Sequence to fold (222 residues):
Amino acid sequence: MPQAAGLTLLLPLLGLAAATVADCPSSTWVQFQDSCYIFLQEAIKVQSIEDVRNQCTNHGADMISIHNEEENAFILDTLKKQWKGPDDILLGMFYDTDDASFKWFDNSDMTFDKWTDQEDGEDLVDTCAFLHTKTGEWKKGNCEVSSVEGTLCKAANNHILISALVIASTVILTVLGIIIWFLYKRNSASGFTTVFSTASQSPYDDDCVLVDEENEYAVQFD
Fold:
């Protein structure tokens, strides 16, 4: 029954491991679903969008990417209530002229958009996207900005996943070690009992045997 006992012990420990997984890096970050977000409120002068992006990469993150309506609404609500952001926030998006499509800087898939009704120019080179915090809609604009009033960054919770895997692996190895130790002790005790009970005995039962080492023969006395 050690396997059943091991599973019984393993399940609550795994639940404990999942419950103790770390949150975002610090209280300045806000967590939503499987990502952490931070709004860097410092207004900075920039020469290119890469300068804006560096603000995020310096914090182990990237410029914001949005993948569903719920995430868009969360960002909009948090910007209004907590971060007090400006009217327009630069999204981590650029126009790729190679395949004529918008892409996220963090290389995530473009699964969602919320473009406002807007006439596109013939040339979208150096076109970026902005989140309008009053309506939650996205609008296209020139990437060549000279300053930003704040930078919105996003980081996937990879450290949370790694922590969970480490904790779960440690728990599993500990339980397996206990099971192996239990089986070893049980088999050792069983083996000793078997050897002791089946040890070869003299074929002469209670007879007395006298061994003459010089003549190398045995004499039996009844």
